[in-house]
Automatic annotation (TrEMBL):
Its main location: membrane. It is found in: Membrane. Signal peptide: none annotated. It holds the Pfam family PSII. It is a multi-pass membrane protein. The lineage of its organism: Eukaryota, Viridiplantae, Streptophyta, Embryophyta, Tracheophyta. This is Photosystem II CP47 reaction center protein. GO terms for cellular component: photosystem II. GO terms for biological process: photosynthetic electron transport chain. Keywords: Chlorophyll, Chromophore, Membrane, Photosynthesis, Photosystem II, Plastid, Transmembrane, Transmembrane helix. SUPFAM superfamilies: Photosystem II antenna protein-like (SSF161077).
Length: 112
């Protein structure tokens, strides 16, 4: 997902969770097509839905949304993605906890 849209969805999830729903129930309130098409693998700047390389079924075309991943560190903190620009090969993907503390930084093997 794009960082902006992902951040907006997280804010909505927190509101829904405060109303008593579990995270999985909160995510289920968002239309799957909206979540699926905003996924970074479908980003037009990265080849969009017609990318050449394999993604899901080896043909490069994403066919469905399996669900929202939840990342946790070894202490059990839930981690949220930050910093996922379109040209993410040259930028780290940062995972922060609920307090905004950076818990992980993922760099790709090839950094220009």
């Amino acid at each position: 997902m794009s960082p902006t849209f992902y951040g907006t969805q997280l804010q909505q999830m927190k509101k829904v969770q405060c109303s008593g729903l579990y995270l999985s129930e909160a995510w289920s309130k968002i239309p799957k097509k909206l979540t699926f098409y905003d996924y970074i693998g479908n980003n037009p700047a990265k080849g969009g839905l017609f990318r050449a390389g394999s993604m899901d079924n080896g043909d490069g075309i994403a066919v469905g949304w399996l669900g929202h991943p939840v990342f946790r560190d070894k202490e059990g903190h839930e981690l949220f993605v930050r910093g996922m620009p379109t040209f993410f090969e040259t930028f780290p993907v940062v995972l922060v906890d609920g307090d905004g503390i950076v818990r992980a930084e993922l760099m790709t093997p090839i950094v220009r």
